[in-house]
Automatic annotation (TrEMBL):
It is a multi-pass membrane protein. It comes from the Bacteria. Pfam families: PTS_EIIC, PTS_IIB. It catalyses: D-fructose(out) + N(pros)-phospho-L-histidyl-[protein] = D-fructose 1-phosphate(in) + L-histidyl-[protein]. The chain crosses the membrane at residues 255-274, 286-309, 321-346, 366-387, 399-425, 445-468, 480-501, 521-541, 548-569. It comes from Tolumonas osonensis. This is protein-N(pi)-phosphohistidine--D-fructose phosphotransferase. GO terms for biological process: phosphoenolpyruvate-dependent sugar phosphotransferase system. It is found in: Cell inner membrane.
Length: 578
């Protein structure tokens, strides 16, 4: 039998790709010829041709928002993408038995229903998801919210604030008609467009792991968002991240692109020789000027500026940038930038809340009064009080890292590696990651190598476990293991979250053991890394990774330990089902 398969999911990344692979494999096991159209955000969908549709005996659609007009006259079966993943073969057999011929009337009905007409008893939800790196948690949380709302029969639309900007953006009409706004974010966002709406704030991790509970909490909230930075803090769910951590992550998320671009450009300058950039007028010198003198020079000011922005909104940005520039010029590095950001943000917030002006002069506050007073306070404190001690601490830290003995290096690697693998993208993971990213500006490249290597281990290890102990995992878990392995290669440790959520007492010790081993070996071998993201794909950039062979050995060793340890600890399926 000839069939065509169409898949889609809310974020267009995980479930859409996984369902496409599972259904294609299941069709082959049934002896059917299948052509797949997978809608995702990784690459443009390869659309079905007219010939492929005309020769198909069956059209299987796993997902929503698929135009069925082109399938008029064909036997079509449509269900949710999550219905296809647990048992793809059974899903196809059900599709073959239950498919019905699509008529012109059915097409017209679908097109009419595309404008949401929700019954009075249903809920309308709009949401935003955002994480510091904007890669995994952002989209996984969006999918979790979409699936939970679908189970309950609610209408929902989720805007994702990923690394490539806002996707699936909410319109003014959708916001106006919404019963509740859910903000699942680990960074600060501008929420002014939600003024007057019931609003519930939580973290991406809570939205992903406790989706039903968080949606219940959101629907139960009576908090109406009034707008403004001060009001934003008052309308939060219990699962929302602590304010200080969230402000720091906002700064880190805006700094990260500068670190990636700057580090890779510096690495490219080394292609022409380690000291080739010293010869003025050469391409190596130009690359170093762009990456080191420009991108890296902006790191600390941007970090401080957006920490302050997170605290005090736009009025805090200028004082934060100024404080960050002072931290750089005083030699206080990223530690000084963090101090300057919080100092500028809370100074600006204090002025905004406490300085009262006549109504006719109120407009001067955000553009004159707040930036002037907050910048003055921040600058004087940085120069006369904070700058010296923090600069000394930063110098001491840099000298310690440069002069570490093998034993100290191994201990630091164990600590950083275990932290990266403890909560899989959570606060502990991000604390270790921020430490490594900040040290790149001080030309300390050892910790970053250990951190990224260890961060790849959880997802790689889970993929390995599903391969070496296949009989202990279900078919859907084995397929999830393949996806996890690919995510691990990309330095997305969140690929291990589905396994950790089901079996945390065995998965987390296994991942921490492997991460600690990888971190220790990376530090022991003296591996360096100049780019804070990209996984194994940064190996394509010459000199981005120092001591490449031993770096790969460290990752392989940690992956093997995690995978084999979990494969041994995980009980057989019969035991689990009992």
């Amino acid at each position: 039998m000839n069939i065509v398969i169409v898949t889609s999911c809310p974020s267009g990344i995980a479930n859409s790709v996984i369902a496409a692979g599972l259904l294609e494999k299941a069709a082959a096991s049934l002896g059917w010829n299948a052509v797949v159209e997978c809608h995702n955000n990784i690459e443009p969908a390869k659309l079905l041709t007219v010939d492929e549709i005309s020769t198909a005996d069956l059209v299987v659609i796993a997902g929503d928002n698929i135009d069925i007009a082109r399938f008029t006259g064909k036997r079509v079966y449509q269900a949710g993408v999550m219905d296809a993943i647990p048992d793809a073969k059974a899903f196809l057999q059900t599709a073959a038995a239950a498919a019905t011929v699509t008529s012109a009337e059915a097409v017209a009905s679908q097109q009419t229903q595309e404008k949401p007409k929700v019954s009075p008893m249903s809920k309308r939800i709009v949401a935003i998801t955002a994480c510091p790196t904007g890669v995994a948690h952002t989209f996984m949380a969006a999918e979790a919210l979409e699936e939970e709302a679908k189970k309950r029969g609610y209408w929902i639309k989720v805007e994702t604030r990923g690394s490539v900007g806002a996707k699936n953006a909410l319109t003014a009409d959708e916001i106006a008609q919404a019963d509740i706004v859910i903000i699942a974010a680990d960074i600060e966002l501008d929420l002014s467009r939600f003024a007057g709406k019931k609003l519930y704030k939580t973290s991406t991790g809570a939205a992903l792991k406790k989706t039903a509970q968080e949606m219940d909490n959101a629907l139960a909230t009576q908090n109406v968002f009034q707008g403004g930075a001060t009001a934003a803090a008052a309308h939060s769910g219990k699962a929302e991240l602590p304010g200080v951590y969230k402000h720091l992550m906002t700064g880190v998320s805006h700094m990260l692109p500068l670190v990636v671009a700057g580090g890779l450009l510096i690495a490219l300058s080394f292609v022409f020789g380690i000291e080739a950039f010293k010869e003025q007028g050469t391409l190596a010198a130009a690359l170093m000027q762009i990456g080191g003198a420009s991108a890296f020079a902006l790191m600390v000011p941007i970090l401080a500026g957006f920490i302050a922005f997170s605290i005090a909104d736009r009025p805090g940005l200028a004082p934060g940038l100024i404080g960050g520039m002072l931290a750089s010029s005083l030699g206080a590095g990223f530690l000084g930038g963090i101090v300057a950001g919080f100092l500028a943000g809370y100074s600006a917030k204090f002025v905004a809340d406490n300085v009262k002006l006549p109504q006719t002069m109120e407009a001067l506050k955000p553009i004159l009064i707040i930036p002037l007073i907050a910048s003055l306070i921040t600058g004087l404190v940085m120069i006369y009080i904070v700058g010296g001690p923090v600069s000394a601490a930063m110098t001491g830290l840099t000298n310690f890292l440069a002069g570490m003995t093998s034993a100290n290096a191994v201990l630091l690697g164990i600590l950083l590696g275990a932290m990266m693998c403890f909560d899989l993208g959570g606060p502990v993971n991000k604390a270790a990651y921020t430490f490594g990213v900040g040290l790149l500006a001080s030309q300390s490249y050892l910790p970053m190598a250990a951190i990224m290597a260890a961060g790849m281990v959880p997802a790689l290890g889970m993929g390995l476990a599903t391969f070496v102990a296949r009989n202990k995992f279900t078919e859907s878990e084995r397929e999830a293991g393949k996806a996890s392995f690919v995510l691990g290669l990309c330095f997305i440790s969140e690929g291990a979250i589905p396994f950790a959520a089901r079996d945390p007492m065995r998965v987390i010790p296994s991942t921490m053991a492997g991460g600690a081993l990888t971190g220790a070996l990376s530090m022991l071998f003296g591996c360096t890394l100049m780019a804070p993201h990209g996984g194994l794909f940064v190996l394509a950039i010459p000199n981005a990774v120092g001591n490449v062979l031993m770096y790969l050995v460290a990752i392989a060793a940690g992956t093997a330990l995690t995978g084999l340890m979990y494969a041994m600890l995980k009980p057989a399926m019969e035991t689990q089902e009992a």
